[in-house]
Design a protein that fits this description.
With 237 residues, the protein is α/β, with parallel strands linked by helices. The protein folds into two domains: 3-128, Response regulator (Rossmann fold); 139-234, Winged helix-like DNA-binding domain superfamily/Winged helix DNA-binding domain (Arc Repressor Mutant, subunit A), CATH 1.10.10.10. It is built from eight helices and twelve strands. The chain has helices at 18-30, 41-51, 67-75, 91-99, 112-130, 165-176, 184-192, 201-214; strands at residues 10-14, 34-38, 55-59, 82-87, 104-108, 139-142, 145-148, 153-156, 159-160, 181-183, 224-227, 231-234. The strands form three sheets. It has a five-stranded parallel β-sheet, sandwiched between helices. Strand 4, helix 4 and strand 5 form a beta-alpha-beta unit. Helix 6 crosses helix 8 (201-214). The longest helix has 19 residues, at 112-130. The structure holds calcium ion. Residues 16-17, 59, 61 line the site of calcium ion (CA).
Length: 237
């Protein structure tokens, strides 16, 4: 093994479409990752068990096993980040995948810069969670927006932004997961508890108020974007 292989992070790409798989492989290798591939669920489980990759890129539509079953299987004993690759218009699949423990999703067709940005975010969150990376950020900065989680203080440029307690909980939850999509259901359970109604009307009302306070143009938000039919994401910059 050449020394350039040391310290490279290993990504398992589970994808049955050969052309997509080789496109992703080439791009990730040139971004400095070691890439393993599996073309179906059975092979994916073998590769995962024998190589212990640091991240999984999972196509939900596999010929043998439903992608969600792979997520459930992996999550029984591993918190390795999983990014789901899904077709446009399959929002319920994405939500299901996220709720079963996928970390993020990317919609086909996607660009390589978007894919590598998602991968970096997922790896960074995994490093923090395992304690091997930097300690969890107490201060999250996105453009002119600063969320000081330790001090419970939000500023936009020079000005402090005043939120209700619920609004602040939502903003700080998104900030702690900056760059990642959080599903409506996940947010509702985190904010209002496990027995809250899954009707997201109250969440939408709070988000409208948050955006009025944060966004120059609430109809085209820069800081907290809607992932249609899935949830919300605080952008990284
Ligand atoms: Ca497929």
């Amino acid at each position: 093994m050449s020394s350039s292989n040391y310290n490279k992070r290993t990504i398992l790409v589970i994808e049955d479409d050969k052309s997509i798989s080789s496109f992703i492989c080439t791009a990730l290798q040139s971004s400095g990752y070691t890439v393993l591939t599996a073309a179906d669920g059975v092979q994916a489980r073998q590769m995962f068990a024998s190589h212990g990759p640091e991240l999984i890129l999972l196509d939900l539509g596999l010929p043998d096993i439903d992608g969600v079953e792979i997520i459930k299987g992996v999550r029984e004993w591993s918190s390795v980040p999983i990014i789901v690759v899904s077709a446009r218009g399959r929002e319920t699949d994405k939500v299901e995948a996220l709720d079963f423990g996928a970390d993020d999703y990317i919609t086909k067709p996607f660009g390589i810069s978007e894919l590598t940005a998602r991968i970096r975010t997922a790896l960074r969150h995994a490093d923090r969670a395992s304690g091997s990376g930097a300690p969890a950020d107490d201060i999250v900065t996105v453009g002119d927006l600063t969320i000081d989680i330790g001090k419970r203080r939000v500023t936009l440029g020079e000005n402090e932004v005043r939120f209700t307690a619920i609004e602040y909980k939502i903003v700080s939850l998104l900030a702690k997961n900056v760059g990642r999509v959080l599903t409506y259901d996940y947010i509702i359970k985190e904010i209002w508890g496990p027995y809250a109604s899954s009707d997201n009307q109250i969440l939408r009302v709070n988000m409208a108020n948050i955006r009025r306070k944060l966004e120059e143009n609430p109809a085209e938000p820069r800081y907290i974007v809607t992932e249609l039919g899935v949830g919300y994401r605080m952008m990284e910059k």
